[in-house]
Design a protein that fits this description.
With 228 residues, this protein is an alpha/beta fold. 42% of the residues lie in helices and 20% in strands. It has a five-stranded mixed sheet with strand order 3-2-1-4-7.
């Protein structure tokens, strides 16, 4: 099954300096078999204590998530691109959802439902609920929901804006929707770390994210209007 379904899938994972969370994700991706391509777009040297699988490649790049993602996609050989954060964790339904998406020959942007890991406050379930409502009803998923996109669509949009220090994912979605590309919610959860809520406080982090979402969305719409 995987040879025919996932042989056109490239997974691009941006990795920040000193980040080690990608190790578990790399182990989880084994379920997709050796047919997929895994590109670790990292702003650190490859660690000496790990031997990468034959279908994985480490790219050492200058730091910047948009830059790392773009470089990873440019390096990808396959038609379908799956953009995953290093601290993402797969649930049991992800593989089937990916299979259905690829079999349908989609050119829309696929994204998963968000669920927070147990490494933060229990109240983050409310944040995940709100994020999923925002994605479903306002069409604004974020990068931690694991974007899946056709390489051709990505190239037509010129990828992520490397001038942005924050909100490159939201900016990408705004431009994608303006180009007439539809969005599709994948019928599975993707788990992401909630450690920031634990470290910086649930309320402070929640309020900051609400303000940033509003601000970054307005900035993205403004750039789009100025470029039209």
């Amino acid at each position: 099954m995987t040879k025919t379904i996932f042989s056109n899938l490239s997974v691009v994972i941006p990795i920040g300096p000193d980040d080690q969370s990608w190790r578990l994700l790399l182990n989880q991706l084994v379920i997709f078999g050796q047919e997929i391509e895994i590109i670790l777009a990292a702003s650190q040297q490859p660690p000496a204590d790990i031997e990468l699988p034959a279908n994985a490649e480490w790219l050492h790049l200058k730091q910047g998530r948009a830059r790392q993602l773009n470089a990873g996609v440019r390096h990808a050989r396959h038609r379908m691109i799956w953009l995953l954060h290093a601290d993402s964790r797969l649930t049991s339904g992800v593989m089937t959802a990916m299979q259905n998406y690829i079999e349908a020959g989609n050119t829309c942007l696929g994204y998963f439902r968000l669920r927070f890991d147990a490494d933060g406050p229990k109240k983050t379930c409310l944040n995940a609920w709100a994020a999923n409502l925002r994605s479903r009803f306002f069409g604004l998923p974020f990068g931690d929901q694991g974007f899946i996109v056709n390489n051709t669509v990505f190239e037509q949009l010129n990828g992520f804006d490397e001038n942005l220090l924050l909100g490159e994912d939201l900016d990408f979605v705004v431009r994608l929707k303006a180009a007439g590309v539809s969005l599709q919610e994948m019928q599975a959860d993707l788990i992401t770390s909630a450690r920031r809520y634990r470290q910086q406080g649930w309320l402070a982090t929640t309020l900051r994210h609400i303000w940033l979402t509003w601000y970054l969305f307005r900035q993205a719409r403004r750039r789009l209007a100025q470029g039209s």
